[in-house]
């Protein structure tokens, strides 16, 4: 088909575009009229079929969505018949399964006879899920009946829950141990299964008797039978007696009790042979004045008065009472069956005379803790041992024991001692240390003057006179501490030698020791005997002392001066007397043997030793002390000090200055031979070790 060219239609005269109006074609305006409501509604109306189809489509979509996203849930219950109720969540049950979307849901399980269970299900994203639940059974109830009928006690699992014949409620379901106890019956025990489910179970039991029948008779009849002390009837009788070991007693007034022990087996009857009762013993009560007398019956000892005896009747008995200091008493008595008989006997004393004397007429005499009067009189006492005490205020009781003898007067002389005298009687006059030294007790209680007169030849300025009082008792070593004794404290100590002359022999006094070493040795010895330490030590050095301590120490200067110089209210000048030269063997001083060793010697004296000698080589002084002059000078406890002039103020038990740089050294030694240093008032001082200075021990009594 041929294509024709498109040409516009011819324009009519007056048509648009010509620019000329056409009266016939002019558009005229009209009034506006809105469309009616009916017309709009007809345009927007939805048909019912469309709605229904849309709804069905939506529901199907929701169902498809739920089926696609839901999980299969299986809920198993015990019991299987439990009712299942799922709440708070959309679910569909298909047979035994539920379709539910993930999340939580409330679950309630219930069944008759069980406790309901409420819980929450947690549905996970897993496709198939199983939940298992076991419902708890409700408790059960039980009634136990017994044959014979009793009010038996019922226990379950060891706990009493009721009695036979009554309902026992709320027993947990399951296995239990049942026990039924009834008086005079054996305990019944068995396993028990409680069904629970709020059911009421019945259990009938037959109880086994726990006794046996025991038959017995007595001659005479009418006696009471006691079983384990409880009345069970009168003979003749057959008694029901519980199983086990039982004590049987048959009693009748005027007869001895018959008794036996039986082993009773439940259900096995016992018939005892006839019992012939014996007449009862008689009762005899014996009393004596004084009490405590020994008693024999027909020569056999039975005890002391007051005494109650049961004796077979129908015969005579001989009673003898005896007591120290009294004459024996004899009685004869026939005992009557079932009767109470008394024997009251006054013993006749055997007296001895005791004359008790005392130096104080007003002293009181106590005999066997009874005040008998004043001393210095004769007492008549029973011939037995007595405790005698003679007492006077301010004195320690005198005590003794005495046995008076008839026809022989005895004398007791009571030595009354003051408390101070009694105290010293119990304190040793000589003691031995753990290292073997001997110390002697001294109780000076004396005033005297220390130092030397200015007019005394050889006196030095440090020997000023002063008044002292020595009142405190003390022990003082008989000799110096020896090398052997000191080496128990300091194993490697050596006292050395002087130009080849040894100072180190075991029995020689230890020398070349400082004051500190001597004080520390004293403390060491106190420790060996567990005594309070006298010296106070810090960092291995003595820093002070405790004057109240009773441990070992060095002597005070006052003690040393009293022990060395004081004789019959005077003060000695030299150890041997008041004049030079020393008497033969007066001690170990610088004699002719020491000439090569020291400068000043006693040229006309020979003691046989150039240096130290064994301790106690020379005679002791009048107090029994050795070498207070000679052999070795001695460290003392006191700090060194100097007093000027004669002090008029008396010092009591002085222990030297409170502080100082040096300590006092007293006594001469093997190296001394001049008038000055041989005198007992000579005072030296120092702190370091010297080859002519040793020490001896002292200690307070308390």
TrEMBL record:
> In this protein, which residues make up the domain named Sulfatase-modifying factor enzyme-like?
447-699
Q: Which GO terms describe its molecular function?
A: formylglycine-generating oxidase activity
| InterPro entries assigned to the protein according to its UniProt record, in alphabetical order | CTDL_fold, PEGA, Sulfatase_Mod_Factor_Kinase, SUMF_dom, SUMF_sf
Spans annotated as Disordered: 1-39
User: What's this protein's name?
Assistant: PEGA domain-containing protein
Name the source's superkingdom.
Answer: Bacteria
PEGA domain location is 141-208, 211-271, 284-348, 352-417
Q: Spans of biased composition, class Pro residues?
A: 1-12
Which keywords does the record carry? Membrane, Transmembrane, Transmembrane helix
Q: Where are the transmembrane segments?
A: 49-68
């Amino acid at each position: 088909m041929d294509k024709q060219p498109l040409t516009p239609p011819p324009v009519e005269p007056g048509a648009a575009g010509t620019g000329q109006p056409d009266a016939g074609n002019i558009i005229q305006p009209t009034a506006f009229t809105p469309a009616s409501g009916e017309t709009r509604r007809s345009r927007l109306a939805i048909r019912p079929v469309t709605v229904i189809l849309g709804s069905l489509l939506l529901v199907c979509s929701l169902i498809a969505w739920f089926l696609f996203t839901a999980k299969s849930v299986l809920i198993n219950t015990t019991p299987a018949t439990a009712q299942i109720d799922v709440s708070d969540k959309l679910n569909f049950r298909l047979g035994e399964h539920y379709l539910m979307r993930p999340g939580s849901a409330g679950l309630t399980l219930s069944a008759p006879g069980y406790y309901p269970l409420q819980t929450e299900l947690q549905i996970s994203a897993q496709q198939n899920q199983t939940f298992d639940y076991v419902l708890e059974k409700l408790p059960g109830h039980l009634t136990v009946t017994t044959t014979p009928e009793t009010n038996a006690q019922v226990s379950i699992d060891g706990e009493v829950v009721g009695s036979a014949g009554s309902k026992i409620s709320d027993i947990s379901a399951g296995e239990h141990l049942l026990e039924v106890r009834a008086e005079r019956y054996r305990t019944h025990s068995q396993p028990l299964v409680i069904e629970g489910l709020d059911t009421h179970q019945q259990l009938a039991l037959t109880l086994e008797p726990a006794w046996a029948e025991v038959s017995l008779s007595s001659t005479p009849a009418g006696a009471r039978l006691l079983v384990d002390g409880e009345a069970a009837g009168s003979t003749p009788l057959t008694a029901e007696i519980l199983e086990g070991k039982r004590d049987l007693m048959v009693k009748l007034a005027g007869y001895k009790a018959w008794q036996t022990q039986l082993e009773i087996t439940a259900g096995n009857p016992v018939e005892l042979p006839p019992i012939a009762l014996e007449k009862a013993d008689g009762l005899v009560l014996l009393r004596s004045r004084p009490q405590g007398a020994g008693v024999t019956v027909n020569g056999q000892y039975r005890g002391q008065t007051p005494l109650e005896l049961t004796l077979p009747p129908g015969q005579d008995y001989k009673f003898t009472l005896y007591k120290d200091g009294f004459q024996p008493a004899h009685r004869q008595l026939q005992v009557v069956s079932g009767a109470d008989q008394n024997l009251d006997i006054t013993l006749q004393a055997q007296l001895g005379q005791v004359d008790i004397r005392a130096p104080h007429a007003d002293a009181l005499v106590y005999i066997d803790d009874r005040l008998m009067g004043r001393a210095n009189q004769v007492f008549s006492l029973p011939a037995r041992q007595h405790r005698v005490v003679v007492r006077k205020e301010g004195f320690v009781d005198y005590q003794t024991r005495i046995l008076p003898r008839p026809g022989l007067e005895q004398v007791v002389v009571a030595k009354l001692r003051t408390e101070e005298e009694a105290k010293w009687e119990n304190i040793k006059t000589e003691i031995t240390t753990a290292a073997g030294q001997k110390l002697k007790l001294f109780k000076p209680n004396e005033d005297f003057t220390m130092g030397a007169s200015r007019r005394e030849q050889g006196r030095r300025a440090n020997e000023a006179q002063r008044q002292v009082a020595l009142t405190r008792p003390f022990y003082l070593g008989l000799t110096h501490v020896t090398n052997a004794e000191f080496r128990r404290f300091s194993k490697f100590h050596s006292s050395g030698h002087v130009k080849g002359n040894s100072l180190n022999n075991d029995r020689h006094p230890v020398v070349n020791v400082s004051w500190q070493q001597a004080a520390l040795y004293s403390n060491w010895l106190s420790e060996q005997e567990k005594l309070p330490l006298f010296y106070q030590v810090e960092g291995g050095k003595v820093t002070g002392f405790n004057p109240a301590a009773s441990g070992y120490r060095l002597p005070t200067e006052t003690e040393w001066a009293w022990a060395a110089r004081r004789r019959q209210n005077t003060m000695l000048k030299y150890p041997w007397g008041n004049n030079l030269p020393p008497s033969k063997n007066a001690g170990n001083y610088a004699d002719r043997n020491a000439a090569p060793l020291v400068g000043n010697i006693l040229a006309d004296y020979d003691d046989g030793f150039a240096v130290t000698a064994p301790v106690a080589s020379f005679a002791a002084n009048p107090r029994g002390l050795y070498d207070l002059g000679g052999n070795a000078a001695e460290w003392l406890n006191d700090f060194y000090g100097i007093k000027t002039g004669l002090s008029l103020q008396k010092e009591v038990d002085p222990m030297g200055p409170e502080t100082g740089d040096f300590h006092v050294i007293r006594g001469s030694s093997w190296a001394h031979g001049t008038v000055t240093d041989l005198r007992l008032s000579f005072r030296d001082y120092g702190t370091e070790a010297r080859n002519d200075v040793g020490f001896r021990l002292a200690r307070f009594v308390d």
